[in-house]
């Protein structure tokens, strides 16, 4: 891995730069506090187009906080303060006047526990497009089908689109949530432990889906499961106590990590 230096706020910092694919999101010395708790410390990371970036690390190390910072969801917690920057396609999302609603349509999120709305399968998927003003039934039908196909669940639900999404299994609900995210045509998809509430077969389906989706989207996935990170990601960032200890090609992280703490974590010595 090549390290380059960038200028930020007049000081120079090493940023991990890996290859020439374009960078979709990047953090430069990003810091975050919950009150006095310094939860993220000088995070320098970049996410590349059409790649899966995995974030691993023990509980409480800041993985969810970081992924929620990437679409500014973390600001819903009132005591949050940030410093440094995170850019999306070259613009600092924390800059004054940045259009956060638009950011959230470009940087979508899938949560740990499937959280469909208590509505029909169809209405779950059509919800976002309707909010964006799409009323035409034919167009909505097309979006619903395309999104459900994109989330590899069309065949399972195409004959029951008017049934309540709560009637589906957990794994199906999670794919509905992925389809709901696809319906707003995101660019980046953030996933916070999306399979931790799923059985092994549903987990496998979501993992396959992530692999397919990276052809069209850039994906950041938090996972507790190191085998999952090794199976599905291109790059892996290892977080510990709010810091990025190591960020590299997934193969390298899992075969020849350069930091002893990464090695200890991946070999199961803590976490
Ligand atoms: N809503 C919140 N309010 C205050 N502190 C929080 C909140 N969410 C997380 N934290 C704190 O931030 C740190 C990182 O938490 P989190 O990002 O959830 O870690 P992880 O996802 O890696 O388990 C922890 O110290 C946690 O207690
Ligand atoms: Mg978490």
From TrEMBL:
Keyword tRNA-binding among UniProt keywords: no
Domain ABC transporter, chain residue ranges per copy: 18-266
The name this protein goes by in its record: Phosphate ABC transporter ATP-binding protein
Keyword ATP-binding belongs to the record: yes
SUPFAM superfamilies, sorted: P-loop containing nucleoside triphosphate hydrolases
UniProt-listed NCBIfam families: 3a0107s01c2
Pfam family, one: ABC_tran
Taxonomic source organism: Solibacillus merdavium
This protein's UniProt keywords: ATP-binding, Nucleotide-binding, Transport
